[in-house]
Design brief:
The complex is a heterodimer. Chain A is an alpha/beta fold. Chain A is built from 21 helices and 32 strands. By secondary structure, chain B is α+β, with helices and mostly antiparallel strands. Chain B folds into two domains: about 10-60, 2-Layer Sandwich (Uridine Diphospho-n-acetylenolpyruvylglucosamine Reductase, domain 2), CATH 3.30.43; about 65-125 and about 165-330, CO dehydrogenase flavoprotein, C-terminal domain (Enolase-like, domain 1), CATH 3.30.390. Chain B has twelve helices and twelve strands. Classes of the chains: A alpha/beta, B alpha+beta. The interface of A and B includes residues 284, 699 and 705 of A.
């Protein structure tokens, strides 16, 4: 597909993009042809001469101390080249500086079934597998924890000594404004318990890594990772090699969804084995192993209490969340904060209290999955709003409109908003689904549900503290007319390569085929922190734009001189640089580059992006800030079988506030993908674990770690989707663009629950909404009992000292008002780990503050 | 990735040759037709094979033929290695045994039905969420009775294995009164499909180890329009999934009155489970709403749902009468109530 040209504005450098005509028009993704023809080389497609194959021996017990590892029988098998165990890689690592609690191979203790214990390399994958099965590991069993309640009841033995309390990894309590006064001002108070089950990412590509040793003690690692930069850091730390000796290349990911954003033990072991053997080593995980890596959505129990006036105006809210974190920290501290942080960005909450706990359990670690920590509280919030609307006799859309947050507002918890397109999103889906006329009036068994959501456009802070940009792009213009584009961003199927190419081509007036991309390669590309937190289009987009504009001004300067035209009158379009006032007067792109190179020398440029500072200055303020937020609204229509409880979505209308669509085709694809994933979570996906009878077994296993038995929708379940893109350019985004990768998932599960209520009058306050739950509600209704199904208890837990943060409208300054009491009560520095503390350290000239801090880290 | 372990593959050209190899190799050998059951089972290691005997190359083991012409009076023979796709699309099957076409269409996914065979579906290994797992996973539960262990984790104090027979064609073929031909080196015999299964998740087939299913025969008396039949499969998703309940119904009417009826439940026990009492409710009376309701109520007892498949076991039992009633209504040509 060629871009339409001629209609584009001739003014360059304006907010609407360049004259290239790429921004805002659908075009075929730059990696599309290779992907559909099988040319794309995923990590598992790589094969190097003398490549050995690696398999991990994984724990078969949920919690235990390793007594012995016997490799004798395995070593005697044909083709076996070598083994590694935890002692070979004793340095801990982890994605967050505050939770460096993983080992590439267990040092002494295993914490879940599937935890890596030893590694074996062999000349073939079959030989490696046979040897892995022949390694004998003896464990001393330790008590196991399967749920948050069990973690509270089992403070000892601790899974990790750095936990806030016992086996509670993280415990927090914070209050913004005066919640008590807010509830006192309410005319009605609604309190509900909710549960959102965990689920997994299910990318089609299973994780794979290839590592090759090179001369000079160097190493290259290709891996299916969303975060090559963080993997680079973890490898540097655990292998003890200088970063400059390690090159990490993120191969194109066959789907990520957050499941490939941690550095993993198998990646580190693969690299270590390659160094040990002096030959390339490859590991390809099975689907079952991907379930063992997990890092999926946390199961979260929630208690939500909201005060409203009778006209629907919100006065106060208290949210308590309890996360089942699995056996390791992963992103868990961030996930914990995220279950409360974005509760305030859709509707104005004058006062807000948030309390949370994340428990360690003997299951694979949970982490970030599409929406990271926010779909769970969003489900609770949007279902409760539906209940409020019904109770107050208000239209659910009208209730939301009355409470909408304002563009540019600073929320109770000090998040600075950008544009807010939520009202227009609601209008679009209400109109599209004929909600006002049809809601509450469909025949029995049919129903409509409305829900909304919002998400970050990139986390405001990097994962490790530093003052460097979050994304960088460099360009090199060749005298042959080609432009090489370098950026650290990882293509995980979301289309980052296409956005990168479009931004550069648009500003330089080139065709996509004129560009060659080199991405996600730590040796050649400037750092981009990775494909997580919906940050790439916004941050990489800004960096690409800056780099292209710098290259353009250089060229304009040379061309202006050659043609005798003022530089500001030059337009870059259709592979030419020409005078906007005299279209015939200009140079071809290649000539323009030659003229510039002749004048200035080799032609390259770079651009980078650092997000703006957020106004929050309290402990925990680092989670939630973003340059701007996307908004979504959805209406789902369902049909419920009243004899069986079986339900299905019939149609989804979804509107997404994209700011500006750089490529509407890609944006719509992401919206539909999110709808699909959200439906899966609402309908069937679950994090089901089994214990066997305790009198006979200590087993604690994932119930069905397979692609067939872990139920996720197929195309047969996918209803028609009508997508509306709401474009209201946000100055915070490149060309006005916001994120789309995650936000549109958020409204789907609550919209389904609300639609089921509309269809049959049953409230299911949990997901997935299995048919037996709906039937239970229908039976209760038939007996005249409340037709509500869901959790009846919230874990009994002490959330500890409450940090009090005055709101902007209370005259607050973004800091907590009781830091001193907090420090006395908890023995922790109130600001530790926050931006404020880091900035203080920087002002004091602490070099340490510029780099990763490993506080709380201890070995086993 | 999960790799297929090495084995010796035999590709006999005749059924006699296949039977001779099978007789000679003992327990080390397994038969394969489409491989859609055996290959994943071998990869996960809960089934093992040193020798695999492929049946698909044997001429005359496939094919579908109406004996004695196309008229209503003849039986239908389906070769054991006829692909499921071929069965579901065959005009004679669709016209005369439409519920069998529905049952076969409900198996797995279109792509796998191109490989899978009707004989293979009948011999499908029983399934269980404690069993269809990798070697490492099964180690973590110290294995189960059906493979390398001693306990059935579905019901740990039970002396037997509760794995589920989820071959979708089986309950329908039982309801239609079909039979199978079994061939071994020692000779040939015919068995009603209803006698092919045993109520034991491990030793689930009455077929002897050295016997090969060669043919499925459907009696003329079960052909439409003399017999009214219907099939329903309950599963989580619209494709790919094994069932968690299936209902196969065959009804014979004498004027307005039901002269004979068979209701067979599938995927809810270790064998296709005839709901005899339910069927008996129908016989001798017209197919009224009341008769259907009475039969459906009786069907619950034939279902023994356990916690070893997808979906809530209690719910699976609870909705059994609902789906039996609906399948009966479909067979009777009554509109389905909503």
């Amino acid at each position: 597909m060629q871009p339409a040209s001629g209609g584009a504005p001739a003014v360059t450098g304006a907010g609407d993009g360049g004259a290239g005509g790429w921004i805002g028009r659908p075009f075929r993704r730059v990696d599309g042809h290779a992907k559909v023809t099988g040319e794309t080389r995923f990590a598992d497609d790589l094969a190097l001469p003398r490549q050995a194959f690696l398999k991990l021996v994984r724990s078969t017990v949920p919690h235990g101390r390793i007594r012995s590892i016997d490799t004798a029988r395995a070593a005697a098998l044909p083709g076996v080249l070598g083994f590694l165990t935890g002692r070979d890689l004793p340095t801990p690592f982890g994605i967050l500086p505050v939770s460096q609690d993983e080992h590439a191979l267990a040092l002494e203790v295993v914490r879940h079934v599937g935890d890596p214990v030893a590694a074996v390399a062999a000349t073939s994958e079959d030989a490696a597998q046979a040897a892995a099965l022949a390694v004998e590991v003896d464990y001393e069993p330790l008590p196991t924890i399967a749920t948050v309640e069990e973690a509270i009841a089992t403070p000892e033995p601790q899974l990790h000594p750095y936990a806030d309390r016992g086996n509670l990894h993280k415990v927090l309590s914070m209050e913004f404004g005066d919640v008590e006064a807010g509830f006192a001002a309410a005319e009605r108070i609604f309190e509900d318990l909710f549960f959102y089950d965990g689920n997994t990412h299910l990318p089609l590509e299973q994780h794979a890594t290839v590592a090759a040793p090179e001369d000079g003690g160097r190493l290259t690692v290709w891996s299916s990772t969303q975060t090559p930069h963080y993997l680079h850091r973890a490898l540097t730390k655990v292998l003890g090699l200088p970063a400059a000796r390690i090159r990490v290349v993120a191969s194109p990911n066959g789907g990520g969804f957050g499941g490939k954003s941690d550095p993993f033990g198998h990646e580190i072991v693969c690299a270590a084995m390659a160094l040990r053997l002096g030959r390339p080593v490859k590991i390809s995980l099975t689907r079952e192993e991907v379930f063992a890596c997990h890092r999926g959505r946390h199961p979260v129990a929630m208690r939500l209490r909201t005060g409203v006036r009778s006209d629907g105006t919100l006065t106060a809210q208290t949210l308590q969340t309890a996360l089942d974190g699995g056996a390791y920290g992963s992103y868990g501290v961030a996930s914990t904060y995220y279950t409360g942080a974005l509760q305030t960005v859709t509707y104005r909450l004058p006062s807000y209290r948030f309390e949370s706990v994340r428990a360690f359990t003997n299951k694979p670690a949970c982490g970030p999955k599409r929406g990271h920590g926010t779909p769970q509280p969003r489900f609770a919030w949007e279902v409760q709003l539906d209940k409020i609307a019904v109770e107050l006799g208000l239209d659910p859309a009208e209730l939301r409109r009355r409470n909408l947050e304002q563009p540019g507002a600073v929320t109770a918890n000090w998040l600075k908003l950008g544009t807010v397109g939520l009202g227009r999103c609601i209008d679009a889906v209400v109109r599209g689904s004929d909600f006002q006329r049809r809601w509450g009036r469909l025949p029995p068994g049919r129903g409509l549900g409305l829900a909304c959501g919002s998400y970050l456009c990139g986390a405001g802070l990097p994962i490790y503290w530093n003052h460097m940009p979050q994304s960088g792009v460099t360009l090199h213009a060749d005298r042959g007319g080609g432009v090489a584009v370098f950026c650290g961003a990882a293509e995980i199927g979301q289309g980052s390569d296409s956005v990168l190419a479009a931004v550069v081509a648009d500003l330089l007036g080139l065709e996509l085929a004129d560009l060659r991309l080199c991405v996600a390669d730590t040796a050649f590309t400037p750092v981009d922190l990775g494909s997580y937190s919906s940050r790439v289009t916004l941050m990489m987009g800004h960096a690409a734009r800056e780099a292209a504009e710098r290259l353009r001004s250089r060229i304009a300067e040379a061309v202006a001189q050659q043609l005798g035209v003022p530089a500001e009158r030059l337009t870059f379009a259709e592979r030419r640089v020409f005078d906007a006032a005299d279209l015939a007067r200009g140079l071809g792109w290649e000539e323009a580059v030659i003229a510039t190179e002749a004048r200035f020398g080799t032609l390259s440029s770079s651009g980078s992006y650092t997000p703006p500072r957020s106004p929050g200055r309290y402990r925990g303020a680092g989670v939630g800030p973003s340059p701007t937020y996307s908004y979504s609204a959805a209406v789902v229509e369902v049909e419920v079988d009243r004899e069986t409880g079986v339900w299905q979505p019939l149609h989804v209308w979804i509107a997404h506030d994209i700011g500006r669509a750089i490529n509407p085709a890609l944006v719509m694809g992401q919206v539909e993908g999110s709808v699909y994933m959200g439906l899966g979570e609402a309908m069937m996906e679950e994090s089901a674990f089994r214990r066997l009878p305790r009198s006979r077994s200590r087993a604690l296993v994932h119930k069905f770690p397979s692609l067939l038995e872990y139920k996720s929708p197929t195309c047969a379940e996918m209803p028609p989707v009508t997508t509306y893109l709401i474009e209201e350019p946000d100055p915070a985004g490149p060309f006005g663009a916001k994120e789309v990768g995650q936000g549109p998932l958020l409204p789907i599960p609550p919209a389904c629950a609300n639609a089921i209520f509309d269809a049959v009058g049953v409230r299911v306050d949990q997901v997935p909404i299995h048919p037996h739950l709906v039937l239970k509600g229908l039976e209760a209704a038939a007996k005249g009992q409340p037709a509500r199904v869901g959790p009846t208890r919230f874990p009994e837990v002490d959330f500890g000292f409450t940090l009090k943060v005055p709101t902007p409208w209370q005259g607050g300054d973004g800091k907590a008002s009781n830091d001193a009491e907090f420090e006395r009560a908890t023995g922790r520095r109130a600001e530790r780990g926050t931006m404020a503390e880091r900035e203080q350290a920087l002002r004091a000239g602490s070099v340490e503050a510029l780099t990763t801090k490993l506080e709380g880290t201890r070995g086993d | 990735m999960l790799r297929l372990p090495p084995f010796r593959l035999h590709q006999p050209a005749t059924i006699e040759e296949a039977a001779a190899i099978l007789a000679g190799e003992g327990d080390a050998a397994r038969l394969v037709a489409g491989g859609t059951d055996l290959w994943p089972n071998l990869k996960r290691g809960h089934q093992r094979a040193e020798q695999v005997i492929a049946l698909r190359g044997i001429a005359g083991l496939g094919g579908i033929a109406g004996m004695g012409g196309m008229d209503g009076g003849a039986e239908l023979r389906i070769g054991a290695t006829a692909a499921l796709t071929e069965v579901e699309r065959h005009a004679l099957v669709r016209d005369r045994f439409p519920a069998l076409a529905s049952a076969v269409e409900s198996i797995s996914s279109p792509v796998l039905r191109n490989m899978g065979t009707l004989g293979g579906n009948l011999c499908l290994d029983t399934r269980c969420t404690y069993y269809n797992q990798t070697e490492e996973w099964r180690r973590a539960i110290s294995y189960c009775m059906k493979a390398a262990g001693s306990v059935c984790w579905v019901a740990p104090s039970s002396p037997r294995c509760w794995a589920v027979q989820s071959a979708d064609s089986a309950p329908m073929l039982v309801a239609l009164g079909a039979s199978v031909t079994l061939v071994s080196a020692a000779g040939e015999r015919e068995l009603p499909v209803s006698a092919l299964y045993r109520d034991d998740g491990m030793d689930y087939l009455a077929k002897r180890r050295e016997e090969i299913v060669t043919e499925i025969r459907l009696p003329a008396a079960s052909a439409a329009p003399r017999c009214r039949s219907a099939f329903f499969k309950l599963r989580r998703r619209g494709s790919i999934d094994f069932g968690v309940l299936s209902v196969a119904v065959a009804l014979w009417l004498d004027g307005e009155v039901v002269s004979d009826a068979r209701i067979v439940l599938g995927s809810i026990a270790s064998l296709p489970s005839p709901a005899t009492a339910a069927a008996a409710e129908l016989v001798g009376r017209p197919l009224t709403e009341e008769a259907i309701r009475a039969a459906a109520e009786q069907s619950r007892a034939a279902a023994t749902p356990m916690d070893n498949t997808d979906l809530d076991p209690r719910w699976r039992g609870q909705v059994t009468p609902v789906y039996v009633a609906r399948t009966l209504r479909a067979a009777a040509g009554l509109p389905a109530p909503r």
